[in-house]
From TrEMBL:
<dbReference type="InterPro" id="IPR029046">
    <property type="entry name" value="LolA/LolB/LppX"/>
</dbReference>
<feature type="signal peptide">
    <location>
        <begin position="1"/>
        <end position="19"/>
    </location>
</feature>
<keyword id="KW-0449">Lipoprotein</keyword>
<keyword id="KW-0732">Signal</keyword>
<protein>
    <submittedName>
        <fullName>Lipoprotein</fullName>
    </submittedName>
</protein>
Length: 303
């Protein structure tokens, strides 16, 4: 594999890893099970969960702050802005900061637009990389196909983290409803909007024992995923949500501590229910990641 191709592959995989993290720190517990003894709090969050699930789309901006090597993608702050939809899963976002600063220094893009639909990710690699790909600036990655082809548990975990059940804000509400220590903090303003603030903690044991945390995974994939999570040493994470007067999450925070470092995600949402008009780039402007890697592998075998 030549140096420029390795660089393109590395940038593409890093971008997917960042998107997986920004989309919600891997797998989440699904379903809105009510926590015992919290009365009106559970009722309010259940209503917000149902309303957000029905909205199916929202505009958002997120930041991911990483300390140490906890996320496996380097320390720093990465931002993501765009639109996402759930049921079906779609996403059109622009990412910058964090790992992209290093990528820019190495000739990669300083920011990257990413489009996802039908479990396929398209990454705009920028003009410099396009010049080395016959003018095609979009890298296409079939996430499910890539994981299956590789047989790699960590890659399967990564692509699972990009699935629709792990991206939408409704699922963050579902996670909070799984928390036995859920509580209402009180009224607060979020960017001038009146909201109600709620918080709770979720243990990884609860997530891993819940079969709904693994939609679409085979028993073997679930076993591999569970083992990989246990290796990280993550015991759980804290979740906070600010619900506006319309019953939608206006802000969310996920704070995770691990032996290698820490990761904090802060997300702001708006325009719930607005159409997520996400389109794939023209086929003539894309390079298939799997085909590129397969060709290089064959060339290496012949050489």
């Amino acid at each position: 594999m030549n140096k420029s191709t390795r660089k393109r592959a590395g940038v593409a995989l890093t971008a997917v890893a960042l998107a997986a993290g920004l989309s919600g720190c891997g797998d989440k517990a699904a379903g809105g099970k009510a926590a015992d003894g919290v009365g009106d709090v559970t009722q309010a969050l259940t209503a917000a969960y149902e309303k957000t699930s029905a909205a199916k789309s929202a505009k958002f901006r997120m930041t991911m702050e990483v300390e140490g090597a906890g996320a496996g993608i380097g320390a720093g702050t990465t931002t993501m802005t765009g639109v996402q939809g759930w049921d079906p899963t779609v996403m059109d976002v622009t990412m910058s900061g964090g790992a992209f600063a290093a990528a820019e220094a190495a000739g990669g893009p300083s920011e990257m637009r990413m489009v996802m639909l039908d479990q396929v990710m398209y990454m705009d690699m920028g003009a410099k990389q396009a010049a080395q790909m016959d003018g095609k600036r979009w890298m296409k990655m079939d996430l499910a196909g890539l994981a299956e082809e590789s047989g790699d548990a960590s890659l399967q975990q990564l692509t699972q983290g990009m699935s629709g059940t792990n991206q939408d804000p409704a699922q963050q509400l579902a996670i909070l409803l799984e928390s036995p220590g859920i509580k209402h903090v009180g009224p607060e303003k979020v960017e001038g909007v009146d909201t109600e603030h709620y918080k709770g903690s979720v243990s990884m044991d609860e997530v891993l024992k819940n079969e709904k945390s693994f939609p679409g995974m085979t028993a073997e994939q679930r076993k591999a995923f569970t083992a990989s999570i246990e290796k990280t040493g993550v015991k759980g994470y804290d979740t906070e949500v600010w619900v506006d007067g319309n019953g939608f999450p206006a802000k969310m925070i996920v704070d995770m501590k691990m032996p290698q470092g820490a990761m904090k995600l802060t997300a702001f949402y708006s325009d719930y229910g607005s159409k997520a008009a996400v389109q794939a780039p023209p086929a003539g402007e894309t390079v298939d990641f799997m085909e590129m890697m397969k060709g290089l592998s064959e060339a290496g075998a012949e050489g």
